[in-house]
Amino acid sequence: MKYDIKQLTLDEKLALLCGKDGWRLETANGKLPSVWLSDGPNGLRKRVKNEETGELTTVKATAMPNIHLIANTWDPELAYLDGATIADECLENDVDVLLAPGVNIKRTPLCGRNFEYFSEDPYLAGTLAKAYIEGVQSKGVGTSLKHYCLNNREFCRTCQSSEVDERTLREIYLPAFEIALQAKPWTVMCSYNLVNGVWASENKWLLQDILRDEFGYDGVIVSDWNAVRSGWRAVKASLDLCMPYRFNHFENVKTAYENGWLTEEEIDACITRLLAFMEKTQTQKQSVTTTKEQRHENAVKIVREGIVLMKNDDGILPLKQGNIFVGGGWFNTCNAYGGGGSAYVQSEYLPQPLHEQLAERLGDKANVFADVLPFMLRQEYELCSRADVAVLCVGTGKNIEFEGGDRTDIRLPIEQEEFIVNCAKRNPNTVVVLNTGSAIDVSAWVDKVKAVVLLGFAGEGGMEALADILTGKACPCGKLSETFPVCLEDTPTGSAHGNGFYERYDEGVFVGYRWFDSKEKQVQFPFGYGLSYAKFEYSDMQIKKLSETDYEVSFTVTNVGDCDAKEISQLYVRDVCAMVSRPDKELKDFVKTSLKAGESKRVSMNLNYRSFAFYSVPLKKWHIENGDFDILIGASSRDIRLQRRIEITLPETEQYTKTAL
Length: 661
Ligand code: GLC
Fold this sequence. Notes:
17 helices, Rossmann fold, five-stranded parallel beta sheet, 3 domains, TIM Barrel, binds alpha-D-glucopyranose, globular, 661 residues, alpha/beta, 28 strands, Immunoglobulin-like
């Protein structure tokens, strides 16, 4: 150990349990290093105070694609690349820990921070978060897996209790953390809210019993900023670091210690973890390996694979020639770099507007023009009606999707809906590009346009990547990591948001596609859905039994299109008959395959005990009931291409009596 707890006085130890200021840890009178924590998931957001003026400013950094867009790549390698890219800017700016990634499950599309989270599905979220953490920490910069847990909306996030049954907690809201912990994040950040009536920051069941004792986490637990309600109760629950500095934290903990409410052993457990953490911040740093330009290119590369082609009637895309109008005001998207709040990155990169980028790529085959005064509607409509194709860039941006607030509906702003409808009346060859950070209701206009492309909150690389996709320089391969419902009322919570004291998660495990499938509801665009300029065929499914609960599933994917492309294949499991209510299907593995035009490849994925099990509260463990299971191979959750049924028979002694069916 580089830092010896025996060198610290009691007061120095107690001071260390709380931040020195907004972003730094205490240094025990210089005995310890100064450690700096900074946001955020979509790029470095280092806040610095001007010592003379006291003014707080944000360091300029590369605006990377937002987490939701990374999720739409379904690509752990790109999640890793994103994390490693941001880590280089942390190294350049003396930041020791990046406060990311967030893995909260997208229970409602209303949540203001969905752009910062991965998915409605815990397996996809956890798998990508694990890779992201590995990417950041490969450079010797720490991470903070957040927000632990059940922070699934912004409404009253600092005072409302998320009320959830244990099976739902373990099957839906914990697994993304469980999977991501395999990457050994240096810190885990607790959430603001209460969980079943106890503040997350002092919830010993969550922090000590589950996170530490059951999941084996031995790193630092840090509070969300100002999430600690009682300093000593937080320490007792094994929360190591209260952030930011709180004037009364030292007294609160010292009084508790003097009254015997807190033991020196409990204090030293936190200090030991903090010292081990500080040692990592000083001994594992790697060198910076990317230039500013390379980081920008990495951003473009990730966005290119996260763009989702959601509709493409008559093959109107890719654009090839003719008069092309670009309108809608979001074609340079500085305001759609990302959602608002602590994750918003200040980038100094100004993208070349989309119409100029399209013109460069299409050359003299096309005449691309834009209304340089967006929202001069009369002029926009005039230009739109004269074009062969109209590309409308619309979106929400950081003033609609932001931390600290939820949306009250999921439609585009009414003036944007009207703009799309009016353009489509003037030009049937209308393409809509969405700069949005979460699912939206497109029902007002989707049937009136020929194509819909989900760009997302793409950061500074958005326009280049979009131009590559729209012109066919790159083939779209992104797929949705969250369901687009027909309307808000079809979602599990509709417009409800709790009463400020508590919100019950009445839908249980039926979240996202699990909900829509179990209710047999139509959706606008399903989980796992995304089109390509190519077409794929699936064939020859084989299942190799490795044990009673371990299987290798293989099949052939063929690109029958005429362009090189990538296909994301998904593996779902259905418990045909269970004693508990279970979702119609659940994602258990996925793989992305690059295929040249005409090429076939053999693909394999794996299933293990947890792929089939549900969490049994009476048995206090993950449990497989004997019986039939369907193994489904899908191009999306609603486009199952191959399936086989298997039967699992575990020893009767491991079973309990099932109803006589
Ligand atoms: C914010 C966010 C958290 C962020 C922290 C520091 O309130 O909830 O995600 O990392 O405080 O800005």
